[in-house]
Write a structure and sequence with these properties.
The structure holds two protein chains of two kinds. By secondary structure, chain A is mostly beta strands. Chain A contains no helices and eleven strands. In chain A, strands 2, 4, 5, 9, 10 and 11 form a six-stranded mixed beta sheet that branches. Chain A is globular and about 45 Å long. The termini of chain A are far apart. Chain B is an all-beta fold. Chain B has no helices and eleven strands. Chain B has strands spanning about 5, 10-15, 20-25, 30-40, 45-50, 55-60, 65-70, 75-80, 85-95, 105, 110-114. The chains are: A mainly beta, B mainly beta. At the A-B interface, strand 4, strand 5, strand 9 and strand 10 of A face strand 4, strand 5, strand 9 and strand 10 of B.
């Protein structure tokens, strides 16, 4: 069964601190892995997308890693800001029937406090 | 540039009433279109996807239906809403035929069935 599990479910950190969010997946056949940021009541916005051959990808203060052997990914946020407060969703893509079937994790809710 | 519009942003409907949510995409042609539902604290669940006009595939059996009357228009409907239909509905699009392209989401519709 295709599944994406994220940890922790929620996280509180102080402004300026770093944090790392985890994602484990059991998906086959794997196409790519994405991290999205979702503000409350809004649609998800893409942060990174990585294919099987990519180990790391950065987008500003966000750095995603992918270990295709262990089927794990992480999202590292550096020097957190209040605006980083949101849900971070790990999404694994399976190419199925001519379209990207996206398997969503439940997300990690991050709260950055001053 | 491409944009996706989804409306309404919020909706409160009585049980047994009909539903129509609309999504349109601008700035692209022949997109793949998707409807997702997000329950509180859960990951996004794919409801329907479409690879072309009049071509609708359903991922899960439910009280909802979808239609694609035009290339860039995707409609989510119900004849009689249930309490369990409450949730956050998201429309999304992606470029057809490419596995590693981005999926872009609308701002979502918060539906409350009372």
């Amino acid at each position: 069964k295709n599944q994406v599990e994220q940890s922790p479910q929620s996280l509180i950190i102080l402004e300026g601190k770093n944090c790392t969010l985890q994602c484990n997946y059991t998906v086959s056949p794997f196409s790519n892995l994405r991290w999205y940021k979702q503000d409350t009541g809004r649609g998800p916005v893409s942060l990174t997308i990585m294919t099987f051959s990519e180990n790391t990808k950065s987008n500003g203060r966000y750095t995603a890693t992918l270990d295709a052997d262990t089927k794990q990914s992480s999202l590292h946020i550096t020097a957190s800001q209040l605006s980083d407060s949101a849900s971070y969703i790990c999404v694994v893509s399976v190419l199925s029937g001519g379209y990207n079937k996206l398997i969503f994790g439940a997300g990690t809710r991050l709260a950055v406090h001053p | 540039s491409q944009t996706i519009h989804q409306w309404p942003a919020t909706l409160v409907q009585p049980v047994g009433s009909p539903l129509s949510l609309e999504c349109t995409v601008e700035g692209t042609s022949n997109p793949n279109l998707y409807w997702y539902r997000q329950a509180a604290g859960r990951g996004l669940q794919l409801l329907f996807y479409s690879v072309g006009i009049g071509q609708i595939s359903s991922e899960v059996p439910q009280n909802l239906s979808a239609s694609r009357p035009q290339d860039r228009q995707f409609i989510l409907s119900s004849k009689k809403l249930l309490l369990s239909d409450s949730g956050f509905y998201l429309c999304a699009w992606s470029v057809r035929g490419f596995a590693n392209t981005e999926a872009f989401f609308g701002q979502g519709t918060r539906l409350t069935v009372v």
